[in-house]
């Protein structure tokens, strides 16, 4: 039985996307690369596509974190501090579970992100729920980013 991992979304199957890897035996995060060249406009939020989707157990999520070297050298950060990819985001009808990184450029200069540049890392987490939580008995996710409401 598959437990957790990464796959390439259909739109990027033939675009030489690299599946995330941990760089050392003690690395917590799987480095994620930009799927295409993107320019980060100063003081604006830009979405960086990864060409990836992730599968995991129902009581897990994938935390998305900016890579520290990228953040410090380029004065960028994740717009929402940490991204959360829920287990049911995988293969959703709207965007197949495509993981996209929302980055804000804090500098006054355009930052160039090249295809294959490592921009974020994903860490799989297990989470707990409270007694009487019946969310697992509810609706099935229909959409992609932001589909569970504001």
TrEMBL record:
Organismal lineage: Bacteria, Bacillati, Bacillota, Negativicutes, Selenomonadales
UniProt entry tagged with the keyword Hydrolase: yes
Record protein name field: dUTP diphosphatase
Superkingdom: Bacteria
A Pfam family of this chain: dUTPase
PANTHER family: DEOXYURIDINE 5'-TRIPHOSPHATE NUCLEOTIDOHYDROLASE (PTHR11241:SF0)
Catalysis performed (reactions): dUTP + H2O = dUMP + diphosphate + H(+)
Signal peptide residue numbers: none
GO biological process, one term: dUMP biosynthetic process
GO MF annotation list: dUTP diphosphatase activity; magnesium ion binding
InterPro entries linked: dUTPase, dUTPase-like, dUTPase-like_sf, dUTPase_trimeric
Entry's EC annotation: 3.6.1.23
Keywords in alphabetical order: Hydrolase, Nucleotide metabolism
Record family assignment: Belongs to the dUTPase family.
Transmembrane stretches, start-end: none
Domain dUTPase-like: 17-148
């Amino acid at each position: 039985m598959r437990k957790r991992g990464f796959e390439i979304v259909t739109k990027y199957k033939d675009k030489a996307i690299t599946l995330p890897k941990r760089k050392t035996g003690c690395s917590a995060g799987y480095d994620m690369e930009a799927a295409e060249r993107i320019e980060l406009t100063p003081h604006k939020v830009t979405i960086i596509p990864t060409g990836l989707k992730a599968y995991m157990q129902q009581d897990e999520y994938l935390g998305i974190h900016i890579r520290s070297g990228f953040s410090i050298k380029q004065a960028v950060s994740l717009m929402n501090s940490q991204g959360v990819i829920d287990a049911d985001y995988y293969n959703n009808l709207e965007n197949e579970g495509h993981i996209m990184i929302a980055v804000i450029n804090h500098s006054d200069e355009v930052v160039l992100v090249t295809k294959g540049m490592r921009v974020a890392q994903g860490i799989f987490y297990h989470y707990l729920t409270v007694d009487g939580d019946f969310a697992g008995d509810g609706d099935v996710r229909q959409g992609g980013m932001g589909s569970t409401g504001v």
